[in-house]
Amino acid sequence: MPFLLYMTDFSHVELRILAHFTSDPELLKLFQEPELPDVFSTLACQWKGISVDQVKSADREQAKRIVYAVVYGAGCERLSECLGISAGQASQFIESFLQKYKEVRTFTQRTIQQCHQQGYSVSLMGRKRPLPHINSYDYTSRNQAERQAVNFVVQGSAADICKMAMIKIFTCVASSSSLTARLVAQIHDELLFEVEDTQIQELAGLVKTTMESLQSMEALGVQLKVPLKVSLTHGKSWSSMKAL
């Protein structure tokens, strides 16, 4: 029986989580129905106050990099390297972004303050990451811990959702009388399965429904303010994957 590789990917999951935690009205707009196909181009439109047809690839890349600079705590120097601009320009970009999405700054400040008080940061599903240097007298150690505090809330929550997806999909496949698919790898927010080609449509329906349903997890008290979306690809090899 021929087998295929099947990849499922949470679309822009970290940006969605950032929108959820910040409740920033402009970020929430990105994920309202009907959702636009290119979120980062739309983000660039919002941030720079330009129309869609005015967005260049450089604008899109800047918007994408700034989002991840905020999430990862990369700072001006790292952003300047990624975009090939001066540290001063990078600082201006970040500041203008935070002026546009004001609740992002509020979220980061609140998260850091809570970590100073508690000594740890908490993910969407309640996992705690202790950060022993959060109140260090050494500026470099303290600053790194503050970046890690914000990063853990966003990336840790994305990991929570992805792990919950794996658990639920495994349970469904194990209890199925027809599916024999096998999860072979997790790569960040992507799951890679090996599946018989005759089962691809059945697995696709199960996986997409299961993963997108994780927007609401009543047992864990989780209700995301934005929907989760999943993209699906498949192919005979990693290099030949195409949209399903």
UniProtKB/TrEMBL annotation:
Domain DNA-directed DNA polymerase family A palm: 2-199
Catalytic activity, reaction form: DNA(n) + a 2'-deoxyribonucleoside 5'-triphosphate = DNA(n+1) + diphosphate
The name this protein goes by in its record: DNA-directed DNA polymerase
InterPro entries assigned to the protein according to its UniProt record, in alphabetical order: DNA-dir_DNA_pol_A_CS (IPR019760), DNA-dir_DNA_pol_A_palm_dom (IPR001098), DNA/RNA_pol_sf (IPR043502), DNA_polymerase_A (IPR002298)
Biological classification of the source: Eukaryota, Metazoa, Chordata, Craniata, Vertebrata
First-level EC class: transferase
PROSITE patterns given in the database record: DNA_POLYMERASE_A
Coiled coil segments of this chain: none
Superkingdom of origin organism: Eukaryota
Enzyme Commission (EC) number: 2.7.7.7
Family to which this protein belongs: Belongs to the DNA polymerase type-A family.
Organism: Chiloscyllium punctatum (Brownbanded bambooshark)
